[in-house]
Amino acid sequence: xxxxxxxxxxxxxxxxxxxxxxxxxxxxxxxxxxxxxxxxxxxxxxxxxxxxxxxxxxxxxxxxxxxxxxxxxxxxxxxxxxxxxxxxxxxxxxxxxxxxxxxxxxxxxxxxxxxxxxxxxxxxxxxxxxxxxxxxxxxxxxxxxxxxxxxxxxxxxxxxxxxxxxxxxxxxxxxxxxxxxxxxxxxxxxxxxxxxxxxxxxxxxxxxxxxxxxxxxxxxxxxxxxxxxxxxxxxxxxxxxxxxxxxxxxxxxxxxxxxxxxxxxxxxxxxxxxxxxxxxxxxxxxxxxxxxxxxxxxxxxxxxxxxxxxxxxxxxxxxxxxxxxxxxxxxxxxxxxxxxxxxxxxxxxxxxxxxx
Amino acid sequence: xxxxxxxxxxxxxxxxxxxxxxxxxxxxxxxxxxxxxxxxxxxxxxxxxxxxxxxxxxxxxxxxxxxxxxxxxxxxxxxxxxxxxxxxxxxxxxxxxxxxxxxxxxxxxxxxxxxxxxxxxxxxxxxxxxxxxxxxxxxxxxxxxxxxxxxxxxxxxxxxxxxxxxxxxxxxxxxxxxxxxxxxxxxxxxxxxxxxxxxxxxxxxxxxxxxxxxxxxxxxxxxxxxxxxxxxxxxxxxxxxxxxxxxxxxxxxxxxxxxxxxxxxxxxxxxxxxxxxxxxxxxxxxxxxxxxxxxxxxxxxxxxxxxxxxxxxxxxxxxxxxxxxxxxxxxxxxxxxxxxxxxxxxxxxxxxxxxxxxxxxxxxxxxxxxxxxxxxxxxxxxxxxxxxxxxxxxxxxxxxxxxxxxxxxxxxxxxxxxxxxxxxxxxxxxxxxxxxxxxxxxxxxxxxxxxxxxxxxxxxxxxxxxxxxxxxxxxxxxxxxxxxxxxxxxxxxxxxxxxxxxxxxxxxxxxxxxxxxxxxxxxxxxxxxxxxxxxxxxxxxxxxxxxxxxxxxxxxxxxxxxxxxxxxxxxxxxxxxxxxxxxxxxxxxxxxxxxxxxxxxxxxxxxxxxxxxxxxxxxxxxxxxxxxxxxxxxxxxxxx
Lengths: 356, 640
What we know:
- The complex is a heterodimer.
- Helix content of chain A is 8%, strand content 50%.
- By secondary structure, chain A is mainly beta.
- Chain A has a 4-stranded antiparallel sheet with strand order 3-2-1-30. Chain A has a 4-stranded antiparallel sheet with strand order 4-5-6-7. Chain A has a 4-stranded antiparallel sheet with strand order 8-9-10-11, with no helix packed on it.
- Chain A is globular.
- Chain B is mostly beta strands.
- The relative contact order of chain B is 0.13.
- Residues 1-38 of chain B have low confidence and may be disordered.
- Classes of the chains: A mainly beta, B mainly beta.
- Chain A binds chain B through residues 40, 42-43, 46-48, 50, 63-64, 70-76, 92, 95-97, 108-111, 113-114, 116, 134-136, 179, 224, 226, 228-230, 280-282, 304, 322-324, 326-329, 345-348, and chain B through 208-209, 211, 259-264, 304-308, 350-351, 426-430, 432, 477-478, 480, 482-485, 537, 540, 572-577, 618-619.
């Protein structure tokens, strides 16, 4: 009798095992509810860009959800992800396109083609705005009809347009310079699709966030010039610049370091704490209050990170590590004050997290 | 593609060949025919190594194809192709393509900039010999020959019949090929001219997933135009000496294939390659001296999607003196000194970069016990910019136990110096070269046996096992000690091991020959240590299993062959990405017939006969079933 029970239990276990395997391979519509998408850029020319999904409720990460669902290669270098209503835009820098998928099932529903080295995207007045480095000597923001996924126009901006956000229904673009110097942020009116304001900030602004008081914070990387023998000829300091979104005036400039150059910025859940750091060669994730006038002495999190973002629901800090661009990366959750919670394995080269 | 101009030049050259005159009678006074003026170094010093010579039928029927097409079908070698007609690199026994040397008439063609050679630009019609030397036994070839060598060569002109050969090919995807060879000799001078031109649109159709399900898309932007000319002269400059000169120029204009995940592509690459060599050989009964000089120039013009052009060019000047001596019946000495001066300039360098390489090599071969036991000891030392690298050795042996059974094996130490890109890539925000790199070094060994029996049913069976280890493996990765910049470093220890199985059975029934061939290779290549820590990472794009089967035969002047290749799945990254296993099959049919004083050959080939959908490199479509027909015309070559 015991043997029969054992056998029955075994059969049940086997059937559960097989049914769970089947479930893992089948991504159902509506699966992506409460969680975050991680963009894994993959290796340049390796066509192994992918998207991971971190489920807050189940505390599990699922990798490669685009290819699993759509059975096609996503493309080369997934630079960023943009969510708009029930659609997700996957901006592929190396493939010069953006794939459009549904937010709940990740089924592919369209493609925005003919982009030129696209970087980041936002949506304003029902249109998509995508920064493009183009050929490095000119920078553009593509204006996209989100119904037809066609490019309506390309707006001339500065060099290496990078971060792009919507503030007061205007589109703010950080001209990072790409591989050259630039020190401007441009503001586009989405009604006319014209640049209506150019603000000079620190050298090579990369990303921006909007704080509780309606001020825009930009992280300026600084400019580095090299000698022929690889030594640095000159470099300018990296800075945080606070700009009034109503008057476009600079309200404060905080020097980060003469020889340190962070790439990313994000803001806390209550929009009162700025976080900055990460990127090639910059150590740590740092924070400061929006009323501060200088940086803190200690990093909130030590270590080298490829990117980070703040979970706008929980306030947790999510960091991305990319040991190389052939191997899996790591997503790690930290408390807002920098205590490590847990790490997860992602796809190749994780470079950003977008929270649903 | 601008092939009209190329065809005009070709026509002019054909006319000039025809005026060369007819074959002259043999002159026994010189008696140099047995002197292997063009003999390749490996033929003398590859004792104990596994060397696979590609047979003449394969070369002849593939005259309208590239060397990479042939190598794709050989065991133990992986050719990574970036689409139809695109860049194709070869790697032997699981290591990287930088560890496989490509030599033409004993001149190393590896680019000093990146250590690679694009095999898809070398037309089969321009060469007479193709061989694969497996393992690290090619110590005499120096840096880069760590896991094997692909030997490409052209024969001694005095051993070839005079005549004119013309080959016209036409195939799927707008593929058109024209090649011609003219050979003439008199008492003291032999000359040979080979020309080649190709144009292909490569707009092939392939299945692709789309929003409305699977549909067929047309591949775009994979067109290629190519033109090449090789001119060789061989002069019996005295009773005991021969001079040989070669000039080989090739132009390659290739649109870079649009990737499966992209909508369009307008990038393009143009290559200009020039190789000029001059050899003088002096022969006596028991020794010979050869003085060689060479100049290799490579230019790559890459136009990106924004029409911005990157101009890379490198050149190498080579001088070499080789001395061979026979000591009685039992010992042969083969030694030489080589100086190679390399220079390169690129948009990615700050300035012209140069380096001088001087090397000495020597090999002593002994033939013992009635020549049933061959043992070879080789040594090589190279200094780069007067800084000495480790001396490397090779010990190989072959023993004929019984008439049909031979044992063989070899063990060697090897090295590879960093490329100029590794050393001098201009530093920017994200990346930098590393002038402090040291050469990779390692050792390899293999052992095996050969069973060979010739009768009505001929049987040929061989098996090898091998192992290799490479330390200070140079890899480009973000370096945490250098603010995570991408740069090369000597960070890894790699190992590779496996086995190779080869079997031929030939049934000779007089007018009918039937031949079957089986090749299987198993390979495991791993990075086992990184920054001093033990790891176990498989090398990417390396199938563990490769099996090749071919069967066919000849009936009078008719030849028919079927070839099938199976590759196991290949990892594309270490996060679980892979390309699934695939198998392709080709069918080739050849027929020859006499026509007056000439031989007419007709070759028909179906590639990918079972219409397999596969990728060799992720995201690059490969063509499905396609056809190639070629017509060859040999004037005064009835002996074939």
